[in-house]
Specification:
- This protein has a 6-stranded mixed sheet, sandwiched between helices. A 4-stranded antiparallel sheet has the order 1-2-3-4, with no helix packed on it. The protein has a two-stranded antiparallel ribbon with strand order 11-12.
- A hairpin with a 5-residue loop joins strand 3 and strand 4.
- It is α+β, with helices and mostly antiparallel strands.
- The relative contact order is 0.13.
- The longest helix has 31 residues.
- Helices cover 39% and strands 21% of the residues.
- It is globular.
- It has 10 helices and 12 strands.
- Among the domains are: 54 residues; 150 residues, archaeoglobus fulgidus dsm 4304 fold (2-Layer Sandwich).
- Bound molecules: zinc ion.
- The site of zinc ion (ZN) has 8 residues, from loops.
Length: 352
């Protein structure tokens, strides 16, 4: 009767009663089915009786190719290869590549969102990248922020260069900041950073670097202390392991990484994104890759290769795309259970 209970699997059926107790061990193996790549195992929940395969709720579900091919497409896309080139190299249709990358982006988005926790941000830099989409008429801006100590990229916003978007970026970062810390924020001279940092952070120090250019050469660099006294900012810089003066070098280096890793953002490209959503999706994959998969050169300690997320204390291992894409499967179920339990808990006192 008990043909192999699967200890780690949870029933993916949202209406199954075993969802609420959050305990694996209700799933048994249930024969095989044939796919193009060969025999695949089938599973059955013995509470609700539903059968399912191991790829249910992952981007691999109903995939007509090998899973490794899907991972390779995602890996190529974060190395700055455009969709047409991927489709030629891998021998699959452009539409398939596009569809896969959308699924990968959704999966990475969930991973990024669920892995981000409150961390000690002491030094923060923010900047924008200008690019074009669709009609080429309105420029689109990519806002990015970076925690300098860990090189972690906590948030990014795609849209117009407005106060709303600046606030959105800082709000996303402040949610991940330990409220007891007073972060030192450094940006360029863009007007909205000052009020956005006042709004979003309870306490912060803020400084600007303003570069004046003439004929593509920087002729003057001006450093301004905006929020906080000179002593406070100097003390924060003394405590910093990375910066000795007010600067935006680290975020500018991240901008270069973003530009080189996204085919949409290469200069003078014909592969600009036709819709801002595509750009947002691609950046979601890239952010997951940068934070959790790719070892950072500045974080190399002897033979140990660390990712920004490891340095920030958000993970204790280097992930692979396979782990990111299958992670959501377990996660989605756990989130649903948590939400259900919370809503039940909230409903209890009202009922009483
Ligand atoms: Zn079930």
């Amino acid at each position: 009767m008990f043909r192999g209970i699967c200890k780690n699997m949870i029933c993916p059926n949202a209406e199954c009663p075993c969802h609420t107790d959050n305990k694996p061990g209700k799933v048994v193996t249930h024969g095989f089915y044939n796919s193009r790549a060969g025999k695949r195992r089938r599973y059955r929940c013995f509470i609700c009786g539903k059968t399912f395969c191991s790829t249910k709720n992952t981007p691999y579900y109903r995939l007509q190719h090998r899973r490794s091919k899907f991972d390779e497409v995602a890996a190529l896309s974060v190395e700055g290869v455009n969709k047409s080139a991927i489709s030629r190299v891998k021998g699959i249709a452009w539409n398939t590549v596009h569809h896969w990358l959308e699924k990968a982006a959704e999966s990475c988005g969930k991973f990024n969102c669920n892995k981000s926790k409150v961390m000690d941000i002491r030094e923060l830099q923010a900047d924008e990248i200008r690019t074009i989409t669709g009609g080429k008429k309105t420029p689109v801006w990519i806002f990015a922020a970076m925690d300098i100590w860990s090189r972690y990229w906590p948030a990014t916003v795609v849209g117009t260069r407005s106060f709303e978007n600046t606030k959105k970026l800082f709000r996303a970062v402040s949610k991940q900041t330990n409220p007891q810390n007073v972060p030192l924020i450094m940006t360029d001279g863009f007007e909205f950073y000052k009020s956005a940092s006042r709004r979003c952070f309870a306490k912060c120090l803020y400084a600007q670097v303003i570069k004046t250019r003439r004929k593509d050469r920087i002729i003057k660099v001006e450093k301004r202390m905006i929020i906080g006294s000179k002593n406070q900012i100097e003390k924060a810089l003394q405590e910093s392991d990375d910066s000795t003066t007010i600067n935006t070098s680290f975020i500018e280096r991240l901008n270069l990484t973003i530009r080189q890793s996204t085919a949409y953002l290469t200069r003078r490209t014909t592969c600009f994104s036709r819709f801002p959503e595509y750009l947002g999706n691609q950046l979601e994959i890239l952010r997951g890759h940068y934070n959790f998969l790719r070892p950072h050169r500045a974080l190399k300690f002897g033979n140990e290769k660390r990712t920004p997320a490891m340095q920030a204390g958000l993970s204790n291992q280097r992930y692979s795309f396979r782990e990111v894409f299958t992670f959501c499967y377990i996660l989605k179920i756990l989130c649903e259970i948590k939400m259900k339990m919370e809503s039940e808990l909230q409903a209890l006192p009202n009922a009483a």
